[in-house]
């Protein structure tokens, strides 16, 4: 009799194939699940393999649209960035994948969720716990008995041989990768030395800037309430969230835009080196930041930058998407974008993206007349005198105190 | 008899020449002051002109070193940036110039400070008030009698003709510029239309990326306590704050690095469009951010990013350099940089800058062993289980509440 | 012919009576306006006086309900407080009064708004500008010709005598007061010495704690979504926003609750000493803070405390109620209060307020079982081990670095 | 042969006596450690008991002075408070105790640290890990074998009887307590029902307000750089950090000042109800907040409140005293207090504390002349006009946008 039904996140690789077989040998019935969040995959091959190894069922779900609509666009709306550099590609996909796995588990009456992650599993499991607190998790790489059995790659290969698990003969890259619609990440292996530059062949989502076209490529992104709704290129117009995001990815790819190579602080307190290529989101974020310059109030922007952008980015990075604070922050994000509508003309060229111009009918905050030095409509130069006088009250006291303290500012 | 002695910020242009003459005609004795903060200028010509127009004295001071050491390096140390884009080039120079003008005024017994700014004068005057609260300011462009007399360029030219003020015959650029060691800014004129792209000939501090060399240029920046102390290029080593900053400017210039084109929020509540090319600081900031990834504690970094970086940048932008809050923030900046020592290998290529690698002996926070997935030294996978369980307590309650509210998260 | 119609904020006092007469003499037609925001006033007398002095009309509006519903309750929902002490009584009323004055001005076709404030007028005028940017403001105490004419109280009294303005014969308190439903403020005069204690007779809204009843008075406040909806006392139940707020005022008054005496930082950069008695809001705020302890998520609370509470309080204090940032913040306040429903038992006694207990059905965050040390349902002690191990990773590195630096933490 | 030497935090109670005996039976040599942080204790009795049970040594250290000087005064300097209510009494003592235990362990060559905490041990252990990362921790209440053996109080009593562990015959309070110089905390037991009011006899550090003297008691606290250095009462002057803190405790105690009863968010994500009486720190904090009103710059204060106060309080609460971020924050605290010198006159009466006045020679920020409405020295009323005009630019645009959007603000 089965010990129960497990919904296993299954990729077709050696690790999750081993786990699939091990779970079956342990007496579980296994429903395999694979999320399509835009990565490269031979979907039919994965299904064939899962069923061959004894899975009760292989469920593959295309989550690209909910990924873009619910999370990627939110990241764009708040200019999400982690530690000034990382656009959160992996973190953005995790909650979408985890929620879908819980849904599948519920649909097929599974009592358990399982995955092949080690440390990286934190984000998945936090999402599991929020999405269905009553579902139990089997994380083999944290079970003493499993770790005991599989102490290295040799043990995995031996088990594979004994259990007819096909092993890919193609040589593995000397780093690990995680691929989705937003980016591909590269870490571990040779990259663990933070002074070892990523080799040219590492990057999969962007051409090398030196190989990119010799002329800039120009296009326009249209936004409504902070969300990209149309991309206009010399070749035509593209709408539809996934479609236009893929187009931005292609533009970024072809022109080498969106590479970063950083050492970042992981949630658990360790530092980790990662390389990421994130073509479309890099472009979309820049355009969005630029449009906000034109239409967003300065005080709202400062509050949003200081609190919402940084906190939302940390929430996502730390696997706290399904949390009260993310919901709280997201309410602010959406509200802040009421007038962020307009279009931004962009250019990409050999690794960099530029803004060429922007316009909007949604906001009255920028006024060419006000901006002109010649116009005195809005306020008079004498008003500035009063403004300075009041602002200076505090500073004069500061200056006087410094003189009294023997440390005059005009030293 | 003289109405008193005025220290006038004098550039040699039509505006300040007019003011110089007007002050003399009004009965003041005028000491002219011009700060050398790294801009292009025919210094001898300016002096000649000032004296010819009747200035008692022309004082030119080279402030480049104090500019770099006291302010530019502080900006690098805190990754200063305004509204996600602007590196504050103009704002960084203002306090240095204003303080020097006060010093000169004190030295030559002036009772008044004067300048030729309109709205932009806010930053100067706030600094004047702090540096010497007892000194009075004459801001002609905010005096009704002056504005009355000079209602347009025609009035200025007429006054110039009547008073032998030489007028440059070279045509004026259709925008205004402000140049210093850090950047050149371009605004007003045709740029007031935010959808009017800056023409190729606008940029003075960077070559057009399409004209930059066809091969990347690599070099290394060494930092001590967050300050760049050495730049190593294929051609040799450069030390000395001004010298190495100029070298970074040259590297950025030659490779087209550091252009931004934005609409920003001015202190007084208006939006303004500005284009800036900031070659060296763009490169130095990127290298510094990168090094911090390797050596700075995650919690300190988040606090610093959220509070210090944003607030210091706003202080400077708003002309509040000489203020209690800037001093308070700067104390934090310096403290945060204790371990930010190491070197960053960089590459620039046709408009973009990249990090190639970094290393540091100053911090133990990054460990290749910890980063490796294979190492279980620091903590065991079972610890992660406990960590997740505790972190999930709050999230499970959230998920249960959502179920109770009829909005299950696994919808 | 009239120069136009002015809507004047008219209190019946010497200052605004003088302004009323002066405006008429200057050729304006004047509509007087007085807001009832809960202050003590002889309304009929004010009206009589205005009309006798030549006002075209006297409009008195009862704004108490919109004051409580739109602003006071929002202050309670976000625990508004300025500089840790001041509950913002004056600042809360200003936008309500200003908006009503603009409404009245619009209704009676006035082109001008006028008031008798000096510095304090900042809040009024910022609200005027936002509520109707096209309406012009006449602020006599900032007009050189008016200030010239009325250089002291003697000039006012002389003008009053010449123009049949009745002058109150009751002696003026040696400080100025501002009274509304929320509080009474006392400042200036003898209070300008910050070491001069407010005399016992100063306070008008609270009895002296030493004169309060000798037994505690207990009652219960019910909240829905952060708003007090019912107060239950030994004498019965009270609902209705204004009614229950008045009851809380009475409870606070009778028991001496809600006095503060502070030196605060005014918007314009000066410090000012103020005494405030704020009986009902002090009680309501305490009860609300307490209930949030029971029902609000910890991370949401920290974000709200750090950003929303402090920023909303500063907005109001600085007269920025009608602003994009206040709207942005308020959206967060309302969202944060979804589950802040329940009841809090309170006690007041001789100057202090206490919470006695609280309960709520709206949230599952507090659980008596979880709280119990004996329960191991939610997580096991072994989980704590893992939690500690992960949390300590960063701290161990810190400790090791300190040892290396020769400053061991266990010194 | 001994398994090694353990330094055990030993209180003399049933739990730690059981652990002491159990460790010995397991084969360890045990050095007992008890910190004197100001709690009530029969020190000789504890020592006698430890030695009788087989401890190699009993070390009792008086840590009161370092507790007050290094941590309590820092809390006062930054107005530390957790979730608006809790003055952190327990959290403040933990790092001092933990560090001393590590010191003692090092001194007596222990390899292990042990304690009798369950969940509460998080703060101790995080401090242990930072202070000496190489020392191992034995936390019996998280060891499966120990928990197995001691499943309830009956098991403990049985073990005590078998091992000659004396058991106190005095009935245990129906809640748990933690006592130190700063406060006594009460939680668990009957208090787990958050609507169960704390009974009158619970409080040990404050008299019931209704039993306090019928007349206010007045005194003055002198501060230097934010630290209380002298307390002047009708009975005389007290200096010395521990001495004056004890005096403030006595004043608070006698007048019933410093009780709070809250539900708080614990680090691990659960809510917990706690009652605390914190007499001296409540008074000192109020006085310090008040003095800052007089002498601290407004912008520094806002930054400090928003970032430093809240973050330092969270650090301490979460057991992160020995951390890079606490060190970073503390650097800011100390810097912010440069001018916080002066004296505050206070009054306490039946549960409440009041400020009566304050003065300082250290700062020029408050000026009686500036504060006066009659003075026009600092700025003219016309300056205010300009200030308002500039501040209103943004608000007018907001108002106009609202009109355009069909939602006029003057609705």
From TrEMBL, chains A, B, C, D:
GO cellular component: cytoplasm
Subunit details: Homotetramer.
A Pfam cross-reference name: Arginosuc_synth
Pathway this chain belongs to: Amino-acid biosynthesis; L-arginine biosynthesis; L-arginine from L-ornithine and carbamoyl phosphate: step 2/3
Organism encoding this protein: Staphylotrichum longicolle
Domain Arginosuccinate synthase-like N-terminal: 5-166
Name this protein carries in UniProt: Argininosuccinate synthase
Keyword annotations of the record: Amino-acid biosynthesis, Arginine biosynthesis, ATP-binding, Ligase, Nucleotide-binding
Family: Belongs to the argininosuccinate synthase family. Type 1 subfamily.
UniProt xrefs under NCBIfam families: argG (TIGR00032), PRK00509.1 (NF001770)
EC number: 6.3.4.5
Gene3D superfamilies assigned: Argininosuccinate synthetase, chain A, domain 2, HUPs
Entry's Gene Ontology BP terms: argininosuccinate metabolic process; L-arginine biosynthetic process; urea cycle
Group of enzyme by EC: ligase
Record domain Arginosuccinate synthase C-terminal: where: 175-398
GO molecular function, one term: ATP binding
